[in-house]
């Protein structure tokens, strides 16, 4: 039986999404370690600072509101801010210091060493996200990256935790990122509800 082009297209569209999600599942231990590190920072009074350019800028805002205003009844709110929410600051810094400085500049004045810097980049090569994560790491923040494709320059920079959505399709990368940060939110709460694992000496 000869399949129609439309049926083949349906199969291809769904197949394109299977492997990246399966690889996220295969990275469960790395994801869990990321969440444990984040939970320890929250436990010590830190906050989550999220940023990304273009499409990931809306993901940054989504992540922040998930932590500040959890949709699951009974889960505690946690401090989080998105550096993409203040248009005046973003455009002002971009005009005065350059686009690549928009997140690093804000981190210099808003971040404390106990905080978490979470940068999101579809291809891993966003200069502003890379520079923001570098500034965060330099100041002692936990540096976490969500990237796509091969991970790009951000994956090569040696940050604390880098989670890669392995797809060259930016739409698929975004879909995997949404799943990933929902998992981050859930597991952070799991660890916060288990005080025995929050000490630095815990495995």
TrEMBL record:
The record's section on Pfam families has: SIS_2
Q: Protein name, please?
A: SIS domain-containing protein
Q: Where are the bilayer-spanning segments?
A: none
Using the record's annotation, list all stretches that form the SIS domain.
Answer: 38-203
The record's annotation in Gene3D superfamilies points to: Glucose-6-phosphate isomerase like protein, domain 1
